[in-house]
Amino acid sequence: MSGAETSSGFSPMPENALYRNKKLYISSDHAGFDLKEYVKDFLAQSGQQIEDLGPEDTQSVDYPDYGIKLALALTEDPEGIGILVCGTGIGMSMVVNRFPRIRGALCHEIYTAKMSRAHNDANVLILGGRVIGKGLAEDIVSTWLDTPFEGGRHQRRVDKIESKNAC
Ligand code: RB5
Q1: Is 31 a pocket residue for ligand 1 (Cβ < 6 Å)?
Q2: CA-to-CA distance for 110 and 103, rounded, in angstroms?
Q3: What is the pLDDT of residues 35-46, one digit of tens each?
Q4: Fewer beta carbons below 10 Å: N end or C end of the chain?
Q5: Ligand 1 pocket, 161 CB below 6 A?
Q6: What residue segments make up the domains of the chain, in order of their start?
Q7: CATH annotation of 24-162
Q8: Is the peptide bond before 55 cis (omega within 30 degrees of 0)?
Q9: Does the C-beta of 95 come closer than 6 Å to ligand 1?
């Protein structure tokens, strides 16, 4: 945990928050819409730069369309980061991890969120809107944004993921 106040406390931006300075793209399907809106609002209050790629309401949509939209946004803006929300997080995870240079992490608790940054340098966080509540989502998102990548041996391993795309 960053030490910042979370769970509806609307944290101020920590000084070492590398990911807080990046543009964050966010998207969902209908099942993730409510949590997307909640996460978007609480991050906007902490000063995070956010682009919402939709949808704009809870009308039924297909999660691959929005996962692909976010993946293409990160292809255009490789320095950006992303958050995707569907019902379980599984569909969005399957979609976004098919794209080069995207390392999407489906996280339903704090430890995985932290390690997905520290060891895997995840650049997309995926949440299950039907799995976790808003308070936990806040803590997961804040932890994820505030945990730096450790590099070193983890960089070598992350590089090997990308080298698979050259096969
Ligand atoms: C939508 O009903 C649901 O299937 C979707 O949000 C997601 O959970 C898929 O993985």
Answers
A1: yes
A2: 18
A3: 999 999 999 998
A4: C
A5: no
A6: 24-162
A7: 3.40.1400.10
A8: yes
A9: no
